[in-house]
What we know:
The chain is mainly alpha-helical. It contains 11 helices and 3 strands. It starts with a helix and ends in a 6-residue tail after the last helix.
Amino acid sequence: MDDQNKKPRTISNMxxxxxxxxxxxxxxxxxxGAEVYRVEDTITxxxxxxxxxxxxxxxxxxxxxVTIGSGGEGGDVxxxxxxxxxxxxxxxxxxxxxxxxxxxxxxxxxxxxGIKRLTEIDKAKPYPLPVRLLGAGLVASFFCxxxxxxxxxxxxxxxxxVISYSLAAFLDRYEINYFIRGFTCxxxxxxxxxxxxxxGACSNYGAIVIGTIMIFVPGVAITNSIRDFLSGDxxxxxxxxxxxxxxxxxLATGAGIIIAAWNMIGGVTL
Length: 270
């Protein structure tokens, strides 16, 4: 009887599939801009819902590490490591993934059905490009007005914002590095603003540049960095803050080089 009681527990095939499901959910959340604590909590909840006795999760901006165990001395232990690359920001997908995790833990949704749902969420198309272009233009014109731009400046900022975001969408299609993306888009923004100012189409090119740059400011990365710090995830907080600073440097560099070149050829001066 004692030998039977000491028989090691094993991880079932269903629980192994649940591990794959949980890691996939965490991967999608991290790739779309979720905070580290949210990713770790989602993975843990999914594994617990499948009655896995032991779950340990460690997530960073570049990888997800999950270990599950059957519990007890000599029980099964499995570790799943998933590297991450190609991050973006899609709050709609994060919201859908949150709803999925709650549905999975609160209902009888099977693991296989859950994997299919994650595939559907991953393949969901973003908002149509015209809608995103309209949003970019409105954001640019709004911030231009905030920074003392006149109505004509806001109109110019709207047009330049649409053009700059179109370039960003084109570069994203080819997975261009975010530093080069920010540098190129901000450089184009500054050039078009200087051109509009020199032609008399606007009166405050500085407000136009600042307003349009706000489209590309990494607000989500900065916010997530602070939230990671507050939740005790120092490594991820530092990584996200470094990423945000690099993007900010790329934006400033793009604008600075264009302004310097413009002044060198006798264009508009500050």
